[in-house]
Automatic annotation (TrEMBL):
<dbReference type="InterPro" id="IPR027972">
    <property type="entry name" value="DUF4489"/>
</dbReference>
<dbReference type="Pfam" id="PF14879">
    <property type="entry name" value="DUF4489"/>
</dbReference>
<protein>
    <recommendedName>
        <fullName>DUF4489 domain-containing protein</fullName>
    </recommendedName>
</protein>
Length: 183
């Protein structure tokens, strides 16, 4: 497995080996002129980002719902150098509450490519009783095997929540691991 820098560009490959057009979402429908991919090991790229949201207000009670979704964090990765990349997006979150209560938070992953936002991977719900002044960890992953490549930003958002006490915070990391799928 070869690890490449995200900043490394494959301009020669794109200039000589690909011709394509953009769809309305910005995904390329490219044709690779060579008949096979490289026979050496596949390349991979790892990028990490921070997650930080809060303190959150009281959510889910009549009249006190702020505008949702609430952004938690994001990570950007450039997969233009990879042949048919699969991207594993993982969110490792720490949910901190100031009081004992039953909280429910629903998260989603949003992919942004060329200014086009699309929800991917369904929803992920945290619902546990939390003791006063405590933290609970919550981890979820999604493997994006779309045909789109380029500079992609994956964001994590809170899409719905029930928080009966203000002051909940969310922290952690969001990572994206892109791996080349050899032909």
């Amino acid at each position: 497995m070869n690890i490449i820098s995200e900043d490394e560009r494959c301009d020669d490959f794109r200039r000589e080996g690909r011709r394509g057009r953009r769809s309305s979402c910005g995904c390329s429908s490219s044709t690779i002129t060579s008949t096979s991919c490289s026979t050496e090991g596949g390349k991979s790229i790892l990028r990490c980002g921070c997650a930080n949201a809060g303190p959150l207000p009281i959510l889910g009670t009549q009249g006190l719902i702020p505008s949702l979704p609430i952004p938690v964090g994001s990570v950007s990765i450039d997969t233009s150098n990879l042949c048919k990349p699969s991207v594993l997006v993982t969110a490792n979150l720490l949910i901190n509450t100031p009081a004992a209560l039953l909280s429910s938070l629903t998260f989603r992953i949003v992919r942004c490519l060329d200014g086009c936002f699309q929800s991917v991977g369904g929803s992920f719900t945290f619902s546990d009783p939390i003791e006063a002044l405590s933290s609970n960890s919550f981890t979820f992953s999604f493997c994006d095997c779309s045909s789109c490549s380029g500079c992609i930003t994956y964001g994590v958002e809170v899409t719905s929540a029930t928080l009966l006490q203000a002051g909940t915070t969310i922290g952690g990391t969001i990572s994206a691991l892109a791996v080349e799928n050899l032909c």
